[in-house]
Amino acid sequence: MDEFEKVEKLRQRANVTYEEAKEALKQSEGDLLDAMIYLEGQGKTGSKGQTSRSTVYEEQTAYVDVRDAVESNKNKSERTIGQKIKYLCHLIWLKCKNNKFVVERKNEKIVSLPVWVLILALIVSFWTVGIVLIVGLFLDCRYEIVGPDSFNVVNNTLDKAGEVVDKVKDEFDKL
User: Which of 47, 94, 130, 136 fits a 20 to 30 Å CA distance from 142?
Assistant: First the structure.
């Protein structure tokens, strides 16, 4: 390989000017590898887009162990029935704690209590609380659940129950 070819090859590999490549070859007595080392020693070979490689081990902190990530996802999807029930109970508790059961009569608020109190009362004495709620409808009481969560379906059902009771009362008055 003649001198011109060596200079061109060195220019391509080291990304240096013709003069720098020629000087490096002159300093290294025509040896391409030595010329490259000479240019690296002067800091002339580094350029944007070039990367360096090393055989030295460095711990990579930005990477996640795939095996651990797969196991973690597997554990989330394979919850036991007890864990699912516990999670469901937690969600229900949050909804019951943050929302209120409101009883109104003629647009005047009579009672406002947390939904969990109503549920507890229904569990303890279903028939008594159920009868009291139905009698309340006949006494023009209206029920609503208010709070940060949306209970539109429940509130619509309670409104329809009130309308049905009003129709029954109207039919009874006509007799």
Answer: 94
